[in-house]
Amino acid sequence: MVSESQLQAAAVVGVVLLLVGGIGYIMMVASVDEGDRGVKKAQGAVTGEVLDPGWHFPLVPFYHSVEYIEIRPQTYTMSGDVHDGDVDQEDAVDFRSADQQHVGADITVRYSIVEDEVVEFHREWNTIEQYEQRLLRPETIDTVAREASALNATEANSDTGRALLSDIITDALREESPSYVDIESVQVRDIHFDPSFERALEEVEIASQEADAERTRAQGDADAERIRAEGEADALREVQEALTEENLALEQIRAYDEGTVFVTDGGTPVILDPDTASATDGDPEPENETDD
To answer: Which of 86, 121, 134, 215 is in the most buried spot, having the most CB atoms within 10 Å?
Structure first.
């Protein structure tokens, strides 16, 4: 007859075996999430087998292992904002501009690992973090320091300057990165200046705005003066025209009084000198000769 102590011992052994079996089963299964690929290794060496999303069984515990590589688009940001970048500190890319100003650039790199080449990526870089720290980050910093120094501070902060820097960094990263890393784009998100230089820029901007306002006021005054002068000229012209018509009317009245107004066939009065008019009246009309 089985004693109570033996039953308890059997129960403990059963629980232990169940736990060991469960742990062993878990260690024999690899689960790959969507957007990832698994690189299978045997005793730490890459086997060349790539595991697609899903469950994979069996793996030999302590012999096989799986390295997970994310193939979704990645972003790596270097920023002066401690809450915005990939490191927990101010991490803007610093450089000296052509006019010797201290400038910081916030930069975001977008890239992805080519799906069919995750094995090669893992062999060379092991993890995405290693690639970012060993190539992407230092190459970006070196490129900015080398190329951005040709720009003045204000040029670097312009749309054209940012686009130029983005293109230069993109080309440099594509040239240095292996074929299984796809550099999609580089964005220069913001440009930071030394506080004293920023104050100087603000003063220049304020002065420029005040000058624009003064030019606008001056132009408005000039336009008002021109309109006033044109109005006065129009009024004077109307007065002169009125005076001319009035003088002509007075001359006509005076001529009527003197009896020296002649009317042409068209009905327009013609004023003649009185002497001329008298001489015209005294000329004998030519006689018409008739044949007897």
So the answer is: 121
Q: How far is CA 12 from CA 2, 6, 20, 70, 200, in A?
A: 15, 10, 12, 42, 79
For residue 68, what is the enclosing H or E element? strand 64-70
Domain ranges of the chain: 16-69, 74-193
* 112-142 confidence digits (pLDDT tens): 999 999 999 999 999 999 999 999 999 999 9
Torsion of CA 70, 72, 73, 77, to 10 degrees: -40
Task: Determine contact, residues 75/110, Cβ cutoff 8 Å.
Answer: yes
Cis peptide before 269 (omega within 30 of 0): no
d(Cα 149, Cα 48) in Å, to the nearest integer? 44
Q: How much is the pTM?
A: 0.60
User: How many C-beta neighbours within 10 Å does residue 111 have?
Assistant: 21
* Domain 74-193: top CATH class: alpha beta
Contact between 178 and 155 under an 8 Å Cβ cutoff? The reply is no
- Identify the sign of the CA torsion 266, 268, 269, 272: negative
Q: 178-216 in b/e burial notation, b at 16+ Cβ within 10 A?
A: eebbbbeebbbbbbbbeeebeeeeeeeeeeeeeeeeeee
Nearest to 181 by CA among 192, 193, 189, 173: 173
User: What is the C-alpha separation between 124 and 69, in angstroms, rounded?
Assistant: 13
